[in-house]
Amino acid sequence: MIKADTLLSHEFIGLRVHILDDTSATLRNVSGNIINETKNTFSIRTSRGTKMITKKNATSIKFSIDSGACFISGSSLIGRPEDRISRNC
Predict the structure, then answer these.
(1) Distance between CA atoms of 33 and 13, rounded to whole angstroms?
(2) What's the per-residue H, E or C state across the chain?
(3) What are the pLDDT digits (tens) for 23-41?
(4) Which residues contact 76 (CB under 8 A, 6 or more apart)?
(5) CB under 8 Å to 20, separation ≥6 — which residues?
(6) Fewest beta carbons within 10 Å, which of 27, 28, 73, 75?
(7) Rounded to 5 degrees, what angle do the CA atoms 69, 77, 67 make?
């Protein structure tokens, strides 16, 4: 079960997200499921297709998890997914 205090130790692919704020106005309020993650980006499947979000530009991201919601700044997520998981365990 994914909890807010252990979110950074989990895989993000498959999670529901909502980009609340982004430096690019066209990417604000994008919501959908994460389908891929790289060191610097998320690919999000939305109702209007796939959007590529740069982590450092997403200043507020809402993750929907089992226990509710968790809000994180995208800049804290920069790095390879496998390194982030081992770094936060």
Answers:
(1) 8
(2) CCCHHHHHHCCCCCCEEEEEEECCHHHCCEEEEEEEECCCEEEEEECCEEEEEEHHHEEEEEEEECCEEEEECHHHHCCCHHHHHHHCC
(3) 999 899 999 999 999 999 9
(4) 8
(5) 28, 29, 60, 61, 62, 71
(6) 75
(7) 20
Rounded-to-integer distance, Cα 79 and Cα 75, Å: 9
pLDDT in tens, 66-85: 889 999 999 989 988 888 77
Which CATH architecture best describes the domain 4-87? Roll (2.30)
Q: How far is the C-alpha of 2 from the C-alpha of 21, rounded, in Å?
A: 23
Give the chain's largest Cα–Cα span. 35
Whether pTM exceeds 0.85: yes
Work out whether strand 49-54 and strand 58-65 pair parallel, antiparallel, or are unpaired. unpaired
Amino acid (1-letter code) at residue 1: M
